[in-house]
Amino acid sequence: MSHAIETRNLTQKFGDLVAVNHVNLRIEKGELFGLLGPNGAGKTTFIHMLCTILPPTEGTAKVAGFDIRRNQDSVRAAIGIVFQDPSLDNRLTGRENLDFHGRVYGMDKIQREKRIDEVLKLVGLKERANALVETYSSGMKRRLEIARGLMHRPKIMFLDEPTLGLDPQTRRNIWEHIQMLNKREKITILLTTHYMDEADYLCDRVGIIDHGRIIALDKPEKLKDELEGDIVSLEVPQPKKYAEVFRGVKYVKEVKVVGDQLHLTVTGGEKTIPKLMEIVRRRGNKVRSVGLRSPTLEDVFISYTGRGIREEEGGVKEQMRLRMRAHMR
Amino acid sequence: MSAQAIYVLWLRDMKWFLRAKARIISTIVMPFLWLTIIGMGLGAMIQMPGGMSFVDYLAPGIVGMSILFSATMSGISVLWDKQFGFMKEILVAPVSRMSIMLGKAFGGATTSIIQGLLLLFAAGLIGAKMPGKTGFLLALLFMVILALGSVSLGLAIASRIEDPVAFPVAMNFLIMPLFFLSGAIFRIDTAPGWLQTLAYINPVTYGVDGLRGAILGGSEFQLFPLWLDLTILAIFSLAMILLGAYLFKKMKA
Description:
The structure holds 2 protein chains of 2 kinds. By secondary structure, chain A is α/β, with parallel strands linked by helices. Chain A has 12 helices and 14 strands. Chain A is 39% helix and 27% strand. Chain A has a 6-stranded mixed β-sheet with strand order 6-7-8-3-9-10, sandwiched between helices. Chain B has one domain. Helix content of chain B is 75%, strand content 0%. In chain B, helix 7 runs antiparallel to helix 10. Chain B is elongated. The two termini of chain B are 20 Å apart. At the A-B interface, helix 2 and helix 3 of A face helix 1 and helix 5 of B.
């Protein structure tokens, strides 16, 4: 087998909704791959199919060389998973959670005890191992889940939104652990995220997923380079009107309206800004604010889908869910 | 099937049980009140034949009741596991659903048998007739089979429900009639015909009758021979285990 993960027309339908739509994806051994997309894009469904807890409606995949439809137990033994939502037993200690995992994965006592100490050290939880999980902080719980996923020495690790709901400092800390697993432990990692910076910072390659389809797939730098230029954001009155105006300017490559701002893709941003401002001034309006930056993955997402990745967030249901998570952590 | 998976799920239930001492006491209190208050209160106005007291008659029934209640209610752990996400950790492991279901069943059965034994002991303390060695072992056998059947019934229902609050409500609709129609509190053979019919199709009746036979060592209250009680109860328990295993197979995390 040459690929860690290989999907063929992998599809999941829930009634009329096509959550994952004929995805063909190959992930190399040793790769740190990120699936980037807004909530509801199909990321979790995709992962659930790969770890065999949700049978695909159509198509199939090979994970660690095993077919997810036919060799479920072999797939399960070869992968480690950190689910999006918490999945620890709060009424057991950290060590007991790991021991439980080791036993269900068929490890004997000597193997278990050795490995428990190893993984605890790896995630820096040795001191708190004998405390009940309900006394852990969110970051510690996340780290314990990572440690647990590592217990049975998986070749491939799935991390579904590993830093969702964590504070910035804890996120950094989790990132370091993820990198270490990939570089030092040589584990292939597939992570999903809707954080642009996370995908950009961590991943060797990024697949951008939207409405169940992978719409762009490359190294983060390559994806950003495709935009060829800088992004100038202008806050102007009547952004729609000015969008039309700038579409007629030949050194402006692309114009997007994002909220009350205009995002213009240009080359040599520093020199272009005065000219752009002059255009607005001549039409009798004022530029309220101006920004200049190199393209981010967010811009890549916008250029492919025509909308921001966060615009779909903030629904009442999602807010409730996040609050529940915060409560349960 | 994996013996280690069954064992570790059982072990987890034991750890929970030993860490939740308040829960142990609260589950024993209700049957104990039945035994003392109903047993002695009602017993004072009931004339029993053959020098027996009503508490003697009632004790095996209440032991059966405490096992029925605590075993079926232990299914709620499935709902908490779903609620707190731990069920995903269990379901994604490379073990069969049958092992998971059996591990859970043995865990719930063990805790409810412990409660049943505590209650039998308490009944002895308030003067109910206690079994000899053989009778005790026979009673234990009935407790094990009744517990396995009840816990499997609870697990089967829990696998189809998502809301931990709805579960006890749904279970009460089921358990209460099973308890009242089991001959735990009154003689079935002298009850009105329609009641008798309902009692005889209730599998718990055979558990209670068997327990009574084992504990009292044969009495005129015995409805069926022990071997018949044992056979019918075993068929019921086996059917519940198979039903639970089937529904677990279809369960989603």
